[in-house]
Amino acid sequence: MKTFKSGGVHPPEYKDLSKGAALERMPAPSVVVLPVSQHTGAPSRPVVGKGDKVSKGQVVAEANGFVSVPVHASVSGVVVAVEQRPMQNGAVCDHIVIQSDGLDNWAEGTGVKREWRDMGLEKIRAAVRDAGVVGLGGAAFPTHVKLSPPADRPIDTLILNGIECEPFLTCDYRMMLERARGIAEGLRIMMKALGVNRAIVGVESNKQDAFEKMRDTVWADEGVRIELLKVKYPQGAEKQLIEALTGRQVPPGRLPLDVGVVVQNVSTAYAVYDAVVEARPLVERPVTVTGDGVARPANLIVPIGALIKDVLVRQGLDPKTKKVVLGGPMMGIALPNLDFPVVKGTSGILAFKKMPDFMPGPCIRCGRCIAVCPLRGMAAEMIKAIEAGEVERYEELHVLDCMECGTCTFECPSRRPIVHYIKKAKAEYAAWKAKKK
């Protein structure tokens, strides 16, 4: 069974908590909070103000550059504030707060079916951009940019990522089981936009039924094949998935398009279908809500902007919950409070009643962090340089190439917070480079 060659781990999966929970649409909350910076690239620019009435699907913040997408109202109602707030990552940006009127009235023009086969390439890309579609696997990179590769770097393969290798998360799995036709249609649309005749759908072997569902859905599509892969983390990372499925290796500092490949997530493919065929902007997304801190683990279709506390309370938040993480446990972010909203990049909300009980120890030079690193990084040497403040060596040691997947931290017998060191080092390096200019 295929997989990437170097490194990787297989953490406990914990997917049984929610994998049997069918997708369920969460009713619109009374208030949604929409950050203007939910994507990689330039933050969007608010085009509404306090007191404005808005419809569901209406643009409330417009794109502010090529690598940017608009933000749409996920409920109909009244804008009650446009104010600066911190995001989960600590950055501060404008947030548009909308009080729902409970009517869910869609903006004019949404939901009007279109035949994508009659649309030109630029019209498809524009439809994806105008709908605010970004990668739903977590990175939230604008999808229309990925569908517009430079002419000097031709693409020959589209990979659809159905791996979902993070423990606990099952929303992509449920999407493949329940919305395979829409995903397949999104795949075909993206193949046309990229001008490719070859696509591969990758699914890990712990999702055999999803693999069979996708295989049965695209069996007649010429040039499309489904691959079942060995279960290994971080196989859902772009570079590792490309290596596993094509044998091509993306060099450090380069992008998938440099080896002729574009990777899209399965839920992103569904969002592309929704944008192009159904003319609906990205106003909701699938989210796994799980962990021992909720009474009813679930896979919900959540309005973007719904507050984390509203989602957790709906699923039976245990008052003994001590930690809530957005995303998976390997790469997710622990929240300081529950007043943050679900954004386009939120794939999971994990609630735990227990906090890890350990103290980090000194490095014992065992080399296990190096053995499991999928990028063959010398984590021990990186940390040694970081602790010594040798910023000028970070580039040489490939600190900046680290994707922060957390395999080294997971494997470290001394429980050293290696990813924390890496994040700190990247910030130090950025400040050092800025000072040198």
Describe this structure in words.
By secondary structure, this protein is α/β, with parallel strands linked by helices. It is built from 12 helices and 17 strands. The strands form 4 sheets. A 6-stranded mixed sheet has the order 1-14-13-17-15-16. A 4-stranded antiparallel sheet has the order 2-8-7-4, with no helix packed on it. Strand 5 and strand 6 form a beta hairpin.
Number of helical segments? 12
Strand line-up across the major sheet: 1-14-13-17-15-16
Number of β-strand runs: 17
**Helix percent band:** 25-40%
- Roughly what fraction of the amino acids lie in strands? 15-25%
Structural class assignment: alpha/beta
> What average pLDDT do the residues reach?
95
- In the predicted model, the low-confidence regions spanning at least 5 consecutive residues are none
Radius of gyration: 21 Å
The major sheet is characterized as: 6 strands, mixed
Distance between the termini: 49 Å
- SSE topology string: EEEEEEEEHHEHHEHEHEHEEHEEEHHHH
Q: Tell me, briefly, the overall form.
A: globular
Question: TL;DR of this structure?
Answer:
This protein is α/β, with parallel strands linked by helices. Helices cover 26% and strands 19% of the residues. β7 (77-86) and β8 form a beta hairpin.
